[in-house]
Amino acid sequence: MLRTKLTTKRPKNAGIRIALLALILICLALEAPQAGLAGRERFVPPDITKASDIPYPVEVVASGLVTLSLNLTTDGQAPTVQVLRDIQGLTSLASTIVTAWRFTPGTLDGNPTPSTMNVQIVFNANGVQGQTLQVPPVAITPPPFPAGYLPAEVAAASYATYPVSSVGQGAVVLDVTVDEHGETKKIGVIRDVPSLTPQAIAAVKSWTINAATFNGKPITSKLVVAYVFSWPKQKPRSIGVQ
């Protein structure tokens, strides 16, 4: 009986082709995360480096949230300010002072670019201890810089509690890092009032913030928050009583 031996012949260079295909697939897998990272880092939002005090006018009894949108130049100057949330008697003063603060501009593909930074200023009067802030929605017109960028925005916020042991006043300015999920990851102190800064930080941690986006994708960004504390109420002194 004759046995027929069947053999399957592989095409020439089949092994080389399979190896090349596997190498290509590995390269694509390795490059995918890097491409995603490059996409996120294509625009790096601006930041704040220095801030001065914002005095609380003694003649003003109003309190609340003033929101300013600063359009920064490539050298970090703020020549134009758009008012997003206004409080009569407080907004003009805040706008004048904030434009003199120092910022680093955003970068696009590694190069400085005109960019927009929002500054949230809470005028924290004595009678609003820890209360919820009114945060009306805003429509940013004209749109922020660069094209496709929307800064982080506050959805819910609260006043800070003034400690009974403090006699401090003035502005605590915070540099808040907000990740792509809207979570507060880090809070840096740009201007410190030692007896009031911990209360300002504690209040900001309770805020609800919508993450910044670039071309529709959430990104990590910076949000400037200033708490402006008025002079504490003093107990009236009795006259003629020893």
Can you characterise this structure?
The chain is elongated, with a radius of gyration of 27 Å. The chain has a six-stranded mixed sheet with strand order 4-3-8-16-11-12, sandwiched between helices. Strands 1-6-7 form a three-stranded antiparallel sheet. A three-stranded antiparallel sheet has the order 9-14-15, with no helix packed on it. A hairpin with a 5-residue loop joins β11 (170-178) and β12. The chain starts with 13 loop residues before the first helix and ends in a 13-residue tail after the last strand. It has one domain (44-229): TolA/TonB C-terminal domain, CATH 3.30.2420. With 242 residues, the chain is α+β, with helices and mostly antiparallel strands. The chain has helices at residues 14-41, 91-98, 197-205; strands spanning 43-44, 47-50, 64-72, 80-85, 102-104, 106-108, 111-113, 115-124, 149-150, 153-156, 170-178, 184-191, 208-210, 212-214, 217-219, 221-229. Helices cover 19% and strands 33% of the residues. It is built from three helices and 16 strands. Residues 1-8, 29-40 and 234-242 have low confidence and may be disordered.
CATH second-level architecture: 2-Layer Sandwich
Order of helices and strands: HEEEEHEEEEEEEEHEEEE
Give the rounded overall mean pLDDT: 85
CATH superfamily: TonB
Biggest β-sheet, characterized?
A: 6 strands, mixed
Question: What structural category characterises the helix and strand content?
Answer: alpha+beta
What's the CATH first level? Answer: Alpha Beta
CATH topology: TolA/TonB C-terminal domain
Give the beta-strand count: 16
